[in-house]
Amino acid sequence: MTGRHGDSGGSTGNVLPFPQAADAVELRHLRAFAAVAGELHFGRAAAQLYVSQPALSRQISSLERLLGCALFRRSTHRVELTPAGEALLDRAQRIIADVDDAVTATRAVGGELHARIAQYWEPVDGSRLEVQSLRDALEDLHARFPPRADVAIAPVNAGGVPALRLTPPAAGHEPTVLFLHGGVYRSGSAFGYRPLAGALAAAAERSVLLPDYRLAPEHPYPAALDDALRAYLWLVDRGTDPQRITVAGDSSGAHLALSLLLALRQRGLPAPGRAALLCPGLDLAGRFRTEPDDAAEPGDPIGALLCRRFVEEYLCGHPADDPLVSPLTADLTGLPPLLVQAATGDPYRPDAHRLADRARDHGVDVRFELYPVDHHTFQIFWTFLPEAAEALDRAGRFIREERERRPLPPR
Fold first, then answer.
1. Same domain as 43, residue 146
2. Which listed residue (250, 283, 300, 346) is catalytic?
3. Would you call 251 a catalytic residue per the annotation?
């Protein structure tokens, strides 16, 4: 803390500058000091702060040691501010007021952002039961966020799978990121996911292939996995080094990405260099979740039991314990490095934790990131949610590392 010329009516004269205080001076010290200065009584100040009087005395003594001067004159019957205490009081009160204002403003903005996200999800929550209504509601949600103007978008036929190629400035023409969209295998589209996939492309500085894979109930398992596999092999067949490819996805798209990795290993096909999984929803069998009803939870606009109904339509009798669709119980040995992102308030956060733990147990290089957000697939809201923008930026950096970690070619 550096002394400055007084600029309020409570200051008298000029205060000489002194060296910056140690970093150990904390806000709790200033609050304790301001409380004692206001009451001029340690007992009343301690009651005001809900601490014991000895604890308060220790905080004041600690602050005086850090500043190198006495702030109070104490006697049996009286507590008074010293000149140094008078010089500090006005400034300490302004610091405390500024911090309180900052906290209030941050909470207000955070509440507004939370309410805004909830408002976006509300139509999805109200259109859950009928297939087309859910699809329309999700498309409408994504349409609220226009794609990045600096990312070029072109249609591609990727091995018979309709897809979009999203290319940011200065990126190579050939895609090296395969992004699989979410939607509980029942909704979502390449067109709708242009904003999120384009933002990831810009963050990664890589071209992204966004397949429009087939959806249930019209096309149950393994249609989505077959489409993802064909799109991936299309990239490889065009001469792209598999180690330069990143497979990414959000929510059920992250589940599909893991199914793809396991299918490649099962068939002895070349694996990608890494995978980025955004808020993965992985527990298709429902063995790790025990929700009592079909009500959507905060942060989960569809509801876990209804998601299970969608999963049943997707599996269409296929065993839910098949390792290809049960990554939380599968052998993950040999998978490429994983980035796993989750939100603190996401009901599917336990899936992300279990995946990270299981992958590490099987020797996989895992990077786990947890963000203080109350919503599933929060990355969708990257245009206004700071945590979402940060998550995509970190995912982009993770993808860019593929070049740094590639082994050097033999001489």
1. no
2. 346
3. yes
